[in-house]
Amino acid sequence: MSNFDEQLSKHIAELSKEKQPERDLFRGIELGIEAQRESNEETQGQGVSSNQWLAIAASVCLVTVLWLSAPFAFKPDESKNDNYALVDAMSSQQQQQVSSLLASYQSTPSIDRRLAAAVKRIG
Q1: What is the CA radius of gyration of the chain?
Q2: Is the C-alpha dihedral spanning 56, 62, 64, 70 positive or negative?
Q3: Which bin fits 75, alpha (ψ -120 to 50), beta or left (φ > 0)?
Q4: What is the pTM of this model?
Q5: pLDDT tens, 36-87?
Q6: Considering Cα of 41, then 46, then 51, then 56, what sign does the dihedral take?
Q7: Over the stretch 1-11, which tens digit does the pLDDT of each residue have?
Q8: Interatomic CA distance for residues 89 and 83, integer angstroms
Q9: How far apart are CA 27 and CA 23, in angstroms?
Q10: Angle at 15 between CA 10 and CA 17, to 5 degrees
């Protein structure tokens, strides 16, 4: 082994096995634990504040007013009834047109009869 290696081994042996912190860490840990306990105690013991009760009461009142006024505020639109009348009129007109087309189709001779008559004339 070289001289450098021997000195390095000597210095390593002289070092302590434990690394000590530069400052006391327990005080910071203790303060953190206490702060967490205090915040937990505040949130558990507090319950619902008066402002929260007022907000809840106002919300309930608003929902009640809206629920009671809904039938008056949202009256059925009269123009929808006019649209339904238009749809009914167009439907009946379409049904009449279909009936007249069926009647005219039934009065014309079928293609088979025409074809048979043409074949008789030719043959």
Answers
A1: 49
A2: negative
A3: beta
A4: 0.28
A5: 888 777 666 556 778 888 999 999 999 999 888 877 766 666 656 667 888 8
A6: positive
A7: 688 888 888 88
A8: 10
A9: 10
A10: 130
